[in-house]
Amino acid sequence: MAVDTLFETILGLIQVLLRVGCFWMFFPVFGATSTPAPIRVAGAFCLSFALQPVVAMHLEPWRLDRLPDTSQLFLFALRELAIGAGMGLVCRWMIGTCVAAAHWVGAQMGFSQGGMFNPEFDTSESAWAELHQWMCLTLFLSVGGHYLLLQALKDSYAMDASRVFANLGDLRNGSLLWIEVGSRFFKWMLQLAAPLTVVLLVLQAALGVLSKFIPQMNIWAVSVPITLGVGVFVFSLLSPLYGDALGSLVLSTHDLARIWLRYLSGGG
């Protein structure tokens, strides 16, 4: 292979790595600090290697005799990081609705008491939230969410990125975008947490009435295993519907990633 061809290939890979690497570092689970750094770096490189031949026609035509100056390189890096970080954050916030709903329900079921009974825990995550995070990741892969996000990354190179910084300063479209992201976050969190929340609320009301009739009973000691058992039982009964809801959440995440790209390209 000629030196010029090899150099252009490496430059193209670096261009892709800037956007894909930033997206990967903000993506949930894979970009988490608990994931070993070599795995995160290897994942970013693998995605970049896979995308580079597909999006080569959309990359900047950098060559040995036509290299950008420092200011152009700096602006290019900022643009790529903004596009990748925005896509990663949108995915992180939407998939984080599953963990937020699990935290809400897990606190009512008693999973948050683990930190009180065992102060040696080095994390604030409850076992219930960790379970839901891995469930969401499993369903994300099973419904083809990784293919959808790879398609979104590919489409991001086909958009007009010449006015990214001007569009980022558009307060009207920017406010509409984040209002849409926030509304979907709270809508999905309520939908995922509502069934168990209602059941546990009724159960706590029943236990409160019981404590009035039998004041000698240590209602706190009794309520912990009851709420835990009932919550797990009801969740097991509703798990097929919960899986369908998480599948719809993955599709909604892909839709929001496309909305982010339309916002950056000036499409509203």
Structure explained in plain terms:
The chain has helices spanning 3-26, 37-51, 70-109, 114-117, 127-142, 145-156, 164-168, 171-213, 219-264. The protein is mostly helical. The protein has one domain (70-264). Helix 3 (70-109) crosses helix 5 (127-142) and helix 8 (171-213) packs antiparallel against helix 9 (219-264). The longest helix has 46 residues, at 219-264. Residues 115-122 have low confidence and may be disordered.
Structure summary:
By secondary structure, the protein is mostly helical. 76% of the residues lie in helices and 0% in strands.
Q: Span between N and C termini?
A: 44 Å
Q: Encode the helix/strand succession as letters.
A: HHHHHHHHH
Helix/strand/pairing category:
mainly alpha
Strand content: under 5%
CA-based gyration radius: 23 Å
Shape: elongated
Question: Low-confidence stretches at least 5 residues in length (pLDDT < 50)?
Answer: 115-122
Average pLDDT reading: 79
Helical amount: over 70%
Summed up, the helix count is 9
The largest sheet, given as strand count, sense and whether it forms a barrel, is:
none
Number of strands: 0
SSE map:
Layout: H1 3-26, H2 37-51, H3 70-109, H4 114-117, H5 127-142, H6 145-156, H7 164-168, H8 171-213, H9 219-264
